Amino acid sequence: MNSSSEKRLSAISYILLSSGLVVVFLPLYLTVITAFKTSKESARNFFAFPSELYLGNFQEVLFNNDFAQFFTNSVLITVVAIALILLVVPLTAYAISRNMNKWYFKSLYILFIMGIIIPFQVIMLPVTRLMTELDLLNRFGLILLYVTYALTQGVFLYVGYIRTTIPKELEEAAEVDGCSKLRTYRSVIFPLLAPLTATVIIVNSFWIWNDFLLPLLILNKSETYWTLPLFQYNFKSQYSFNYNLAFASFVMTVIPIMLVYVFFQKQIIAGLTGGAVKS
Amino acid sequence: MKNKKLWIISVLALVLVVAGCGGKSSGGNAGEAQGANQGAGKEEQVTIEIFNQKSEVKDYLNQIIQNFETENPNIKVNQVQVPDSRKVLYNRLASNDAPDIMSIFPNESDFRTQAGSDFFMDLTGSDVLANINPQFLEGVKVDGKDYSAPLTMNAYGIFYNAAKFNELGLKVPTTWAELEQTAAAIKEKGSIPFATSFKASWSVGHLTEALLTNAVGYETADKFFQDPAAKADSDPSIQKLLAQMDFIGANSQLDAAGADYPDAVNLFATGQALMLPQGIWAVPVIEQAGMEDEYKMFPIPNDSGNGVVVGGIDYALAISANTKHPEEAQKFVKFMTEQQTAQFLADNEKSPSTITGIKADAPQTEDVTKLLSEEGRFYPWLHFNWKAGLDSSWGTETSAYLILNDKNALLKWINQEFGK
Amino acid sequence: MKTINRYAHYLFTLPALLLYAVFFLYPMVNGFLYSLSDWDGLSKTSHFIGVDNYVRLAQDDRILNSLGFTFKYAFGLIVLTVVLAVLIAVLLNRVRRFQSFYRTTYFIPAVLSMITVGLIFNQLFSQALPAFGKAIGSDVLSRNLLSNPDWAFFGLLFVSLWQGLAIPTLLFLAALQSVPKDLIEAASLDGATPWQRFRSVVIPFLIPTLNIVVILSAKSGLTAFDYIMAMTGGGPGRKTESVGLLVYNFAFQEFKFSYASSLAIILFVIIAIVSIVQIRSMSRLEVNA
To answer: What is the pTM of this model?
Structure first.
């Protein structure tokens, strides 16, 4: 392998990667500039940079709606659901991975794994009716659903991780020391799962934060429960004509998650690749 | 039932707490408290829920509610207006969780099916309906009973840019031949005759139903769909409809296939297209799009020169059969039919009122809406007589024809779905 | 205390089992039962009609049309996801400078919600692209591609890739980085070309990731709903009516609730078969490699 062809290859790599960047950025650029234009201005030229930074769209989105409430709901639901997921999922996975030889645990595992391939459409209709009947069409009900649906992939990832990276001897030693099984789990096993836990937190946070269909089905009973994606969808139907307003609402719902991403991008990317691949 | 719910929730909460080795259970408790707050109201004050399916009405309804609450300090009315409201409402009805009052579309066959399942309060002969013009009640009876209070009407026709029509010396067409001449003249002057939105299949559904009703008359069109022996391939009504659709398609903007409802309105509001076939519900949207020229509306022309208006009940309320506050709910619906409220709603919504003696202030659409009370010039939408859900498929299939021009696919579909 | 400790592992699984049973298994069984009834979603009553819904499904042109589209779409999505994600991952793995910058920016679409992305692209396809098409004088581009019967498919595919590529790329990149350096060096010393090195040394390390990526994109392709809902609504005509959308339409637009349930069950069976085939064939590859 000579160095000149090596150089040519890496030049091609940079060119290809950079053109990919254009594909990624162009739609985002258009979204942002449209949010700063009046509808008349975008009718004239969709691509041009706004002649002045018109803030009216943002004002209208912000002041005509209970934006703070929707934001708080999104945060609350995401945080509480993640906390419960961390409480339930690794514990279950741990119990399963240590008892694969028992039929109960084995079948439980298969049951959870099966969930990965079951399309949501199958349970969408019955679940909505169930939640209505249980009087759970509210934020708490939605959180319960998130914890449940996080089980399928979560258990799969954790079981794989525990079986390949955590030696049984560790907990046997702990148990000899007189630790109860719960103590062992809490003080020995759970801390060791940290890399995968990071992955699980990230994947599930993005999913819950961005999810649309479940909030649409569960939180629609009252506007005070709405999350940001739900607000945005409704906003679109409310102002079907003025798409500049819609773009302003896109920008505003995207800003929080973008900030999180910008600040934690290293951890997020490391977390996503770190845990998942080992499984 | 209540007990079962409580039981399940507490078991779940308990298990979550135990699993968490104590502590960290704030999520569960907070949620439970919310659940408890939700249903119960204070004893002296009654809270009723009104589920509103029409987002355009939301702000006006809130003002009406305010007036109502001032008059009735012991009743609190809570408006709920959510996206995909139809799905949410049907789910709640099916799960015995009906709102006290809900806005519904009483002409549609899904409403009639639900009324047949006793979801709604029977208002027949009730004082609640006393202010409503009996003519409008007639069309929404289910098995001879009243399950809804119709409040406003919608109507379909063709908007036109009156200013540009004057400028170009165009006359408002009354026959189909004149419409063809008008379109040709507009094209010649370099403008687009029709602003249409084939991507919004619902709008094509409305257009084609209104065209068919005018092309062959309501009775003939209605009979065609009810008669299993009339095959689409050989029926003259359908052939005539197809020809008219071809004409509309050929005289629409270049990208009608890719246009959604707002795109079509925008094209009309900016003066690029001079005619917009649409219902009167488009008025607020046209205004929002910044229409500056004067615009008016004419009924869809037909061969005899007296085009008919197609329409139905637009805003209507029904009360749940199982509401815990039947008196308060009736009081509110009655309030909606009082002169002052009805006038306020009609003026702001720009739609004709069903309340006796109320006239909406909407000069743009009056050439069409005045026909609503004229004998033989107003007919209901054809799909009111179809199986529930067929209207949306009809829209999809007719828009597919306009985009893909596959005549046989449409004819085959009609034969299949209408049991021919 | 001792006995509790003996059954501790059973207790550990209890909360998960309870949640899963109430909010997943029970609705699933219910969904299956609905599929055997004639409930329309409106009435208070329904009847057991056995497998009638399934028999009708098999004769329904719309189902066949929709299955055809869905398979084509899922296949396109799987192939392009794997090819492009591996390509981008290889490129990212090659470059020394700006690697983390590229990686960070390529990942941005993945943090956005599907509904936002769908709504944004819907506007871009109807406003931006036609404006561009007119400027360059292209007749096809000056109209909304999403309403073009030949192009709507690719428009949808483009958007799902725009957002969906990020995570597979990241996973492949991590897999590439897990390939031991000395293995590659040994192969080059043996005189292997870059392609040979890639095929015989690198690919075996990608197989587990490939497995995950294929199953996940198969599922997202076969159940495609959000983008289609936000962009084409199944149109033009019924050209992009995916099975996922059809289930939704049957249930909520056309009042065939139980018919929709039976279609959803069929969808599940299809996904199950695809997943099993995938896992079987890949595990064989992994062993052989």
So the answer is: 0.83
User: What CATH superfamily classification does C52-288 receive?
Assistant: MetI-like (1.10.3720.10)
To the nearest 10°, report the CA torsion of B166, B171, B176, B181: -70
pLDDT at A146: 96
How far apart are the C-alpha atoms of B289 and C16, rounded to whole Å?
52
What was the pLDDT predicted at B35?
40
ipTM: 0.84
Q: What is the DSSP string of B287-338?
A: HHTT--S-EEEEPPP-TTS-PPEEEEEEEEEEEBTT-S-HHHHHHHHHHHTS
CA angle B365, B202, B59 (to 5 degrees): 55
Q: Check whether A1 has a pLDDT greater than 70.
A: no
Q: Do A119 and C219 touch (CB under 8 A)?
A: yes
Size of interface A-B (CB pairs under 8 A): 98
For the CA atoms of B142, B144, B149, B154, the dihedral, rounded to the nearest 10 degrees, stands at: 60
Mean pLDDT of the C201-214 span? 85
Nearest neighbour of A47 by CB, restricted to C95, C104, C128: C128
A31 touches chain B (CB under 8 A): no
pLDDT number for residue A278: 41
Q: Any idea where the domains of chain A sit in the sequence? A: 59-278
Tokens of A75: 């945060």
Which of A26, A111, A124, A149 best tests the C interface by mutation, with the highest count of C CBs <10 A?
A124
* Gap between the Cα atoms of B272 and B259, Å rounded: 14
pLDDT band with cut points at 50, 70 and 90 for residue A2: low
pLDDT for position A279: 36
Indicate if the pLDDT at residue B10 is higher than 60: no
Which residues lie closer than 8 Å to A223 by C-beta, 6 or more apart? Answer: A66, B80, B81, B82
Contact with chain B for residue C23, Cβ under 8 A? no
Domains B46-153+313-365 and B154-311+369-417 share a fold: yes
**Which CATH number among 3.40.190.10, 3.20.20.70, 3.30.70.100, 3.40.50.150 corresponds to the domain B154-311+369-417?**
3.40.190.10
Superfamily of domain B46-153+313-365: Periplasmic binding protein-like II (3.40.190.10)
Q: Given CB atoms, is A272 within the 8 Å cutoff of chain B?
A: no
Does residue C218 contact residue C278 with C-beta atoms inside 8 Å? yes
Spell out the alpha helix ranges (H) of chain A.
3-35, 39-44, 56-63, 67-98, 103-117, 120-133, 139-165, 168-176, 181-184, 190-192, 194-210, 213-218, 228-238, 243-278
> What is the domain class of A59-278 according to CATH?
mainly alpha
- Domain locations in chain B? 46-153+313-365, 154-311+369-417
